[in-house]
Structure formats: structure tokens, C-alpha cells
């Protein structure tokens, strides 16, 4: 294994190298704290070990009898008090800077889903772009098999978040189901994503490159498998990316009114399945442990397609099966069609995007 | 019958081994097992819960019976009396903190979560939400998700006000009973105690009526968003405490009729009275904060 | 003791009860002695045995966690089960191991130290103990319920708890019962201390352990009901359609965190103040010098307790509090270092120019000061909001709290065990074994938890079943250390505790420690079943009985 630039290094002892001013300030504060605490430790434990060595009975040291001294006691109350006030004062400016999310050049909403991140470019260059960022399916399989490989193990996603270098980016976090936390160590950023509420944070990357983070709030069983990958690029590259992305979106945008054929739907559904469902239900469709099998499942085989659509839209078992309403109508229709016509399932049913739309409220 | 004179009481009475605590723990095991299963729709849980409660009450009867007997046979010195006073005060303090959690929730909902759900920022998620704490104004539900059916809120008039009067009166009657006990007028004391218990029961009756009214006429339910949640939890837990206090007073009244307590020594009476006053004070808080504000 | 006639009879409890003669030899025997106990020493023993069992269960869960994290990739468990392990490890250790163990110490020592015959409410005392059994059974058996044990972390954050299966309700009810047990136990302790001191034992002459427990008991009474409230709201949100934590109904998941941490932060001091008390007993005994700054110790303890109520949101820096909130909680949190520092300095001043020997209790106490202070400093670093943005929910926090909980609370308990167990059992432990236990535990403890600081700084989140490859080496080291540490605790049980319980070993004298002061050393070893049935007459410093 090698170090991962923008992510953790092997046997790393300190913070990941800072890529923003805020992170630099934080690291400076941390180093300052280490020094201060180290000095206090040396002083305090110096006294302690000196006394342990010298004031032993085995060396014939006779006990003194003092047991209070108002002056000393006042001194060692005041001095630490002054020290902690100093520490607090050092940190204050950085807290103020961290909280200042005004004047952002680009605003992006990051939504935590069980278990992936959705990004909407709300304001600034690239407005309107939406993407879902999921852990690369191969990584999850490696994890299950207990045979991890690669420097970006568990950090590789299908679609990274792309942002321009040197611009103030405001990230608005929220969540769809439970609390998640959007963290990128190199930026010195961590912000909980809370369902029903929005919170914000910001960063201005000083250099281009790939930066990695992971979800930092326990959000259920796949908590370890929803990484964050931010790709920081220079302005022209960003403009090009936005352009390409716009074109691709226009081209790919599925016409929800389109009527699909069975094999088209299955082919599309297989991709959706592998990217989203296989982590739990397995490629074999047999599920595992508490996860229900899809192969031969009554709901999947049911003649009433709405039953399965409802499960995907709303989730089941209190969210043990999460809601997938963040997927597009076409994707949901495709993946259902796939499950209805794969493994031992041969219903021949085709679910159309319009079926899904009908059940969405 | 009177408590024996100080001299014959042991310095500090330590009871002999007793099976009550162990038995009571068994009872509570069935209670929590049953309750946990019942709310997950296993019908047997209800029986288990009922059995556990029955068991626990039986044990409690025996336990308190023992304590009352010990008290009456003069084993409790002045020292123990003081212990009981301390313990009752700190028990009431713990109850205060329990209510504080729910008052805190109410404060948070009103001052923080509802306004911030309606803030400009949050318009991203709930564009149509107005963020008005429920009142009788149309559309003011305090809940943005559209999952709350329209409901009307519970005002202070008339039932809560009547109930306030009832509780305050009961505090007075209880104090009169106490003075009567101190003055050695046992019959009067018992009379005033019965009146107090009756007032407690009346309060509960009115509250039951109020709940029925909320559900059927106002469409105000536990599920009515955070208003309904805090309303029913606060008033519900208070009602439960009134019930407990009322039972305490009832037991004390029965003990009085059996001839327990003396004008000098009657901590059982006072402990129950403290509890009753505590319930009273919580109600005043509820009355102003939940119903008026 | 004067004649005691028992009113009313009910079965078994009175089998041995007709003790109407002086110094009733009503030493109950067999299983009844334990099930129906009203003796503070027996109940203390029950508490200690119970909490040690829970330490073992929680420890095995910790080892399962460490085994899974030994290498990247999933080896033994699936992530769902892993989260159950983490959650149950935290819950069992906090509510099953540490808190009851301190109550066990309180039961044994407080009546002895203040010259009281027993706890104020002997039956309720036993009830507090027996309540924990159904709660522990319910909690542990939740692994076998459909969907497995709760897996939302020991903090039980909403809305993840709303997704849990039926075991969550079992867990909630178990916590209610544990809370009731704690509240009753605390009331008992407070009343015992305030009302049952021997004449002459004034408040400011009480041993430090008694003082710290008095203050801890107040903390418990103030915050356990708040926890009960929080989880009750979780329960009604789960089953009765309330919206406390549901934004769609106007509620707020963050509200749960505020209520929880209003309990949770004082809770961590509940787990450390009695430890401070134990250490404050031991240091003077082995330095052969009175405790330095007794009064300031008392005030410092009280200040820690009071401050603990206004710092809770330092666990929530990343939830997006307003600026003023962050600053307030940052300053308030850092202030706690001042009274804690006063305690550390007082211990050092007690040692200073003493005449020290290093028997096992002293080793643990000095080890405690050293390692706990390191944990305190990492706490301080966490308290700095800008730094904590990087550290929150990473292994740095895991390292911090194991330094204060394992090297703090647990080490102090070991210190207290070696110090007082001769009085409990009448037998001395083996000094060699005690030393082995100490040095190897200290070593393995640091091997386990020191590397976690690096992991956290480098960004490894906690509650992760699997992690990027770069974190592998330190995780492997930590896992090895964990097994070593666990092994030492088995050693402790088999080679120190068990022989003492069986009465094997050198007979302990009444005063095993040359310079230990206090009323507990005024009674023989092992302490007789009944002690101080008549209030003793005390000397001026309330450390000796004069008759
Ligand atoms: C016994 C338990 C215990 C104790 C005593 C402490 C003590 C402290 N803790 Fe700790 N803490 C926990 C248990 C404990 N903690 C737990 C369990 C968690 C995690 C919960 C979870 O999320 O699951 C946690 C988490 C936690 C956090 C949140 C981290 C996060 O999640 O991001 C913070 C942040 O401020 C913090 C701070 C502190 C501070 C400032 C102290 C202070 O009290 C320390 C004071 C002591 C010293 C500073 C050392 C001695 C002093 C001197 C020698 C004097 C000289 C010093 C100076 C002048 C500075 N703790
Ligand atoms: C209160 C006290 C306490 C104690 C004493 C401990 C003790 C230990 N803890 Fe603790 N831990 C917590 C409280 C505590 N913990 C809390 C509150 C959390 C947070 C939970 C959460 O995130 O929700 C946590 C989380 C936590 C994590 C993070 C899990 C995660 O984030 O996913 C880890 C990981 O290493 C860990 C490890 C350990 C280890 C190795 C010990 C060791 O010290 C244990 C040693 C004891 C034994 C091992 C038992 C004795 C041995 C046997 C019975 C026989 C078997 C032994 C052998 C064969 C060798 N703990
Ligand atoms: Cu999402 Cu953890
Ligand atoms: Cu804290």
C-alpha cells in the first residue's frame, strides 16, 4: 500500500496535509496545543517523577507534615485559568472564520442518503448539475470477501464531486433519512447532514487534486461505505467539465414518457442493480443474513407491480430497506424490471417509468 | 396506637433480610419484557406486562405493609424520620428533572426547531412551511411535512382552568387535613383527606374528558406534529403523576382510618403531601406554558 | 444492639431473624443471604461481582471489535453486527461495568468510612441492585431478538434509533430500569452520608471518597431522569406517532442530542469523580502524609460537577451550532481543566516530600494520575472547536475517552480493589501478582489506545467495520494490545481475585497499610458482618475510634 495523496498516508502520525487556509489554521492550533500541553506535562510529571525517585521510604526520606498552602493553591488555580483563557483566545478567530459562509462563489447541496451522497449545484457556475456519488461497487465486494486492495480502497466512488480551485465553495448539507456527516480532512471540514434541516460549511481549496473523506456519523450498516471524493480542478478544466456534464445530462436525460422494451429495461436495470442493490442483496439476488432474497421473493414475483414500486419508493422494515426515491423514475422502473426477470425470476413483466411516476407523490 | 417512645427504638433500624426487593425485580422483569414485546405487536406481551404489574403491585403492598408495621411498632427512630425526609426531597427533585426534559423539548420545539424549519435557509427543503406555532389560525400546524391533519389547539378555557382551581383547592384541603392531624382531630383530618382524594379523582375525570374532546372534536392527537407530541406527553405524564399522588393520599387516608400516625410523627402523611404539592406546582407550570403561552 | 422484635412474619426472610440478643449473630446463610440481602457489605459484593461480569461481557465485545479491525476487509462479522457490538460494548461498559462498580465501592466503604451501621435504606439498597439484573438480561439478550441488538451507538441518536428493530425497545426499557436503580442508589448514598455519620464526623472531615460520591450522587439524581425523558421520547416517536425528533412533524433530531448530552456529559464525570475519590484516599496512605489541600479538593470536585452542566454541546460542534454557541461551549469546556488541574496538583503536592512506598494500590494510583492526565489533555484538545472539527467522530475521540475511562475509572477501581480488598476478604493479595497485573496492563493499555490518536488525526472515523488500507498498521497494533489487556484482566480475576475470595493467602492484619487513616481500618479484617451498630466515638480528626 502507498500513501494516497489527498487522503490518508501509511502510518500517518498527524493530520492530512492541509489544502485550505482553515485547515492550516486548525493544524497550527493543534501543534500549538501539543506544545503547550507537552510543556505542562513535562513540568507536572517532572515534579511527580522527581518526587517518586527522591521521596521514597526506601531511601529513608522522612515525611513532611504540611498539608495546605493558600498561596500555592491560589497560584495553581489562577495560572491554569490564564492558560486556558489564552488557548480559547487563540481558537476564537478560527471559529469565526469557519462559520463565515457568506460570499460563496459556488453553492452545492450535499444530501446524505443511506448510503451515498447526492450533490446538487445550486448556485454559481454549473448551476443545475446533479449527481449521485456512490462507493465503487467493486470495493464493497472486496470488503465482503476480506481481500482489500488498492490505495483508494473504500474511498473510490463512481462520480466524484468536481469543484474549481481557489473559489469559495459553500456546501449545504442535509439528509434524506438519518444523520450523516460530510467530512473532508484535507479541507478541515466536517458538517453533519441532518434530515429535514439544512446546515452549511465552506472551503476554498488552494491546490488542485483529489481529496477524500468518509461519512463521519453513524448512519446504519453501510456507514463505512459512503466515501466523499472531491476533485479540485483549475478554472478551464472546471468549465469544460460543466459543459460536458450539461451535454451528457441533456443526452442521457431519460424521457419519462418513453416506453421501454423488456431487454432494454433489463440491460439498464442491471447497471442500476449493481451500483445500488448488490451491496446488500448480493449479485446472486439471494440476500444475506437479515437481508431478504429477491430471487423468488413473493413481492418481486407478484403480478401487481405496484407492490414492489412502493417498496423501492418508501423503503421497508423501518428503513432496513431504505427508500430509493432519489433514483430517477427510469432507474427504478429498470431495476424492478431487472429483478423481475433475472435469476430464477421469469415474470416477463416490464415496469415503465410512468408506472413509477404514478406512485410517486 | 402510637409510635413507641424514643427510648425503645433502636439507634438506627436496619431491616432483616427481605425477599421484597428480589421479588419486585422479578416483577419488573416481566413488565419490561412484556411492554417491549407488546408495543411490537406481540399479543402475549400484554399478558406478560399485566402479570408483571400485578406481581409488582402485590410485592409493593407487602413491602409498604412491612414498612408501615415497622413504623407503627416504633422501630423508626427520629433518625429514620430524617432519612425519609431527605429521600423524599431528592426523589421529588429527580421528578422535577424528568419533567424538565419534556419542558426542554417544548422550549426547543417552539424556540428552535419550528422557527428554523421555516427559516429562509430551510426553504430549500420545505418551501411552503410557515412556521407558526399551532394556534387556532388556519394552516398553523407547526409541522412542515404535510403529514399532520389539520387540528385545533387546546386553550386554557374552560377545563384546564377548572382543573387549576381543583388542584389549588386540593392543596388547601390537604393543608387543612394536616393541621387537623397535628391538632389531634383525627376525624376531621380523615374527612378533609377524603375530600382531597375526591378532588384528585375529579381532576383526572376532567382530564379524561379533555382528552376525549381533543381527539373527537379538535382532531388533536399524539400524532398532531410536535404540538400534539409535547401537549400529550407533558399533560399525560402530569396526569399519571396526579394518579400516583392520589393513590398515595388514598393509602394515607386508609392508614389514618386504621389509626396510624400521631400528631407528632406522621412522615408518611407529609411525604405524600409534599408529592401532591409538587404535582400541583408542575401543573401551574403546564397551565401557563402549555395552555396560555 | 438493643432488642429488635420483628413485626409480622413472612416466610423465608425470617428464618434467622429472632435475634433478640446482644450483637445478633444473624449472619444469614446460603442463597438467601444474597438474594434477600440487606447488608451493605453483601450488597456491595454483589455489585462488584455483577460489574466485573459485565466488564467481561463488554470486554469480549471489545475484543470482537478489535478482532474485526485487526486487518482491513471484513473477516468475521458483517457491518450490521459490528455496529451492534460497538453499541452494546459502550452501553454495557458505561451502565453495566463502570457505574455499578463504583456503587459497589460506595456500598462497601461509605458506611465503614463514616461510622454508620449500614446504608440508610437497606431494602431499597438491595432493590437497586436486583433491578440491574432484569435490565442486564434484557440488554444482553437483545442480541437474540429479531434484527439483533440496538446498533445506533451508545448515544442512541435519533433518527437512527427509529429504524432499529424490537431490541431497541427492550434496550430503552432496560435503560429506564437502570436509571431507576441509579436514582434509588444515589438517594440512598446521599441520605446515608447526610444523616448517618458518626458524631464528630463533620462534613469537612469526611474521607474524600465519601465527598466525591456525595457529589456524584447529586449528579446522578439530576441527569438520570433527563436520560429517561430522552429515551421515552424515542419510544413514543417509534411507536405512538409523536414527532419529537421528526422534522416532518416539526421536531428536530438535534434536540435529541441536546437532551442526551445534557445527561451525557455529567455522566462522564459520574464515572470519574468516585475514581478521584479513591485516588485521593490512596495517595496520602502511601506517601505517609495527609492529603494536601483537602478543602480545595472538595471545592474542585463541586466545581467540576457544576461546570459539567454547561458544557454538553462540545459533543456537537459539527452539528452546525451558531457561532456564539460554539464559542460558549468551547470556553466553558476548557474551564473544567482548572478544577481538574487543582486535583492533580494536590495529589502531586501530597506525594511531594512524603515517604513513599509503591505497593500495588499506589502503583495503580500513580499510573492513574499519569495516564488520566494524558486523557485530560486530549479532552482539552477536543474542546477546541476548530480542532475538534477534524477530530469529532474519529478514533482520536475513542482514544481520548478510553484514556479517561479505562486508564481513569478502571485503573482507579483496580487501585481501590487492591487497597480495600484485604479489608473485604481478610486476605492479602500477592504483591508480585499485583505488580505484574499493573505493569502489563499499563503497557498493553498504551499499546491498544495510543495508536488510536494517530488514526484519528489521520482521519479514520469511528464506528467503522472496515477502513482504508493506510490505517492498517496502527489498527493491527491496537488489536494486539487489546488482547493483551484483556488477558491481563483474566489474569487479575484468576490469580488475584479468586484466591482472595477463597480466602487463600496471607492473612490480612486489621491495618494492612502503615499510614492509611480512616474508620474502615478501625474494624478487623475481614470486616465483620455488622460494624458500627452503635455510633462510635471519634477522635478530633475523625479518623480513629476512641472508647
Ligand atoms: C471519565 C470520563 C471522561 C472524562 C473525565 C472526560 C474529560 C474531559 N473531556 Fe471527554 N469524553 C468522554 C469521557 C470523559 N471525558 C467520552 C466517553 C467521550 C465520547 C462520547 C462519545 O461520543 O461516545 C468524550 C468526548 C469528549 C469531547 C467530544 C469529542 C467529540 O466527539 O468530538 C470533548 C470535547 O470537548 C471532550 C472534552 C473533555 C475535557 C475538556 C475533559 C476535561 O475534564 C479534562 C480535564 C483534565 C485535564 C486538562 C488534565 C489535568 C489538568 C492539569 C494537569 C492542569 C493543567 C492543565 C491546563 C492548564 C490546560 N470529551
Ligand atoms: C466505560 C468504559 C469502557 C471500557 C472499560 C472500555 C474498554 C475497551 N474498549 Fe471501549 N468503548 C467505550 C467504553 C469503554 N471501553 C465506549 C463508551 C465506546 C463508544 C461506543 C460507541 O461508539 O457507541 C467504546 C468504543 C470502543 C471502540 C470503538 C468502536 C467503534 O468505534 O466501532 C473500541 C475499538 O477498539 C473499543 C475498544 C476497547 C477495548 C479494547 C477495551 C478493553 O479495555 C477491554 C478489556 C477487557 C476485556 C478484554 C475483558 C476481559 C477478558 C475476557 C473476558 C476473556 C477474553 C480475553 C482473552 C482471550 C484475551 N471501545
Ligand atoms: Cu452516512 Cu455514516
Ligand atoms: Cu463531554
Automatic annotation (TrEMBL), chain B:
GO MF annotation list: cytochrome-c oxidase activity
Any one GO CC term of the record: plasma membrane
Entry's localization field: Cell membrane; Membrane
Lineage: superkingdom: Bacteria
GO biological process: aerobic electron transport chain
Keywords in alphabetical order: Membrane, Translocase, Transmembrane, Transmembrane helix
Family annotation (Pfam families): COX3
Enzyme Commission no: 7.1.1.9
Transmembrane segments: 21-38, 44-64, 84-109, 157-177, 189-209, 229-252, 273-292
Membrane topology of this protein: Multi-pass membrane protein
Major location (coarse): membrane
InterPro entries in the cross-refs: Cyt_c/ubiquinol_Oxase_su3 (IPR024791), Cyt_c_oxase_su3_dom (IPR033945), Cyt_c_oxidase-like_su3 (IPR000298), Cyt_c_oxidase_su3-like_sf (IPR035973), Cyt_c_oxidase_su3_a-hlx (IPR013833)
Heme-copper oxidase subunit III family profile domain location: 8-293
Family membership: Belongs to the cytochrome c oxidase subunit 3 family.
Database matches in PANTHER family: CYTOCHROME C OXIDASE SUBUNIT 3 (PTHR11403:SF7), CYTOCHROME C OXIDASE SUBUNIT III (PTHR11403)
Name of the protein in question: cytochrome-c oxidase
Species whose genome carries this gene: Sphaerotilus hippei
From TrEMBL, chain C:
Subcellular location: Cell membrane; Membrane
Listed pathway(s): Energy metabolism; oxidative phosphorylation
Gene Ontology BP terms: electron transport coupled proton transport; oxidative phosphorylation; respiratory electron transport chain
EC numbers on record: 7.1.1.9
Ranges that cross the membrane: 46-67, 87-108, 129-152, 172-196, 208-235, 255-279, 291-315, 327-349, 361-387, 399-420, 436-456, 476-498
Annotated region (Disordered), positions in chain: 1-24
Keyword check for tRNA processing: no
Main localization (coarse): membrane
Record-given protein name: Cytochrome c oxidase subunit 1
